[in-house]
Design a protein that fits this description.
Blueprint: H1 10-33, H2 40-47, H3 51-57, H4 61-65, H5 67-82, H6 89-102, H7 104-108, H8 114-126, H9 128-153, H10 162-183, H11 189-200
């Protein structure tokens, strides 16, 4: 018998709504006046809640600034995990990220317009403390993805270097893509998707094939 997940209670829904409102206000302020010039008090006041309420949802400004990125990264990791088993590892990474850009509006539109999410990317790139945090999180994400790939391929991630090597190459391509896109003229999700696809096409064949024994 099929069961459905229980619906969140009213209290949980209210907490989620408040968090989304705080996140929306934070992104609007960060993108309009800059990260450093925005205070926690301003974010809380924009939603008409107390500073204490803000800190119940976010550890600080940095967490709020990177919250949307965390949502999309989590979707990407799950996207890699869900790719068909017959896809080679690099192809699984490629398809997961391209489909992630294709479904960007579905992921973030319930919180902020996609245009604001994209503008937040430029804020992160131009703010040293946020860029440092972004790179630190990227390293943690790469390790998680390497373990997903190893599990998909039946490998020991600590004995076989290919999962971490592939993810390191993939991550480097994504960093170059982000930098080019953030300073380019086509500031759109489709522009980022196209640039990502073009740059991934330039990765050499060494890691592109299947890794499984006998394939």
């Amino acid at each position: 018998m099929e069961t459905t997940a229980p619906r969140p209670g009213l209290r949980e829904m209210k907490k989620r709504r408040t968090r989304d409102e705080l996140l929306r206000a934070a992104v609007r302020l960060f993108t309009s006046q800059g990260y450093e010039r925005t205070t926690v008090d301003e974010i809380a006041q924009a939603v008409d809640v107390s500073q204490r309420t803000f800190f119940r949802h976010f550890a600080g400004k940095e967490e709020a600034a990177l919250a949307l990125e965390s949502v999309t990264v989590a979707r990407f990791v799950e996207g890699v995990r869900a790719r068909p088993a017959h896809e080679a590892p690099m192809e699984a990474l490629r398809q997961a990220v391209l489909e992630g850009w294709g479904s960007l509006s579905e992921t973030v539109e319930s919180i902020v317009p996609v245009e604001l999410y994209l503008r937040m990317y430029r804020v992160i790139e131009s703010t040293p403390v946020l860029l440092a945090a972004h790179l630190r999180r990227s390293a943690e994400t790469e390790e998680a993805i390497a373990r997903v790939l190893a599990e998909r391929e039946g490998l020991d991630v600590d004995a076989d270097p290919r999962p971490r090597l592939a993810v390191a190459v993939f991550g480097a391509v994504m960093r170059v893509t982000e930098r080019q896109w953030a300073t380019g003229e086509d500031f759109s999700a489709e522009g980022m998707r196209e640039l990502t696809s073009r740059y991934l096409d330039q990765v050499g064949p060494a890691l592109l094939g299947s890794w499984r024994t006998g394939t």
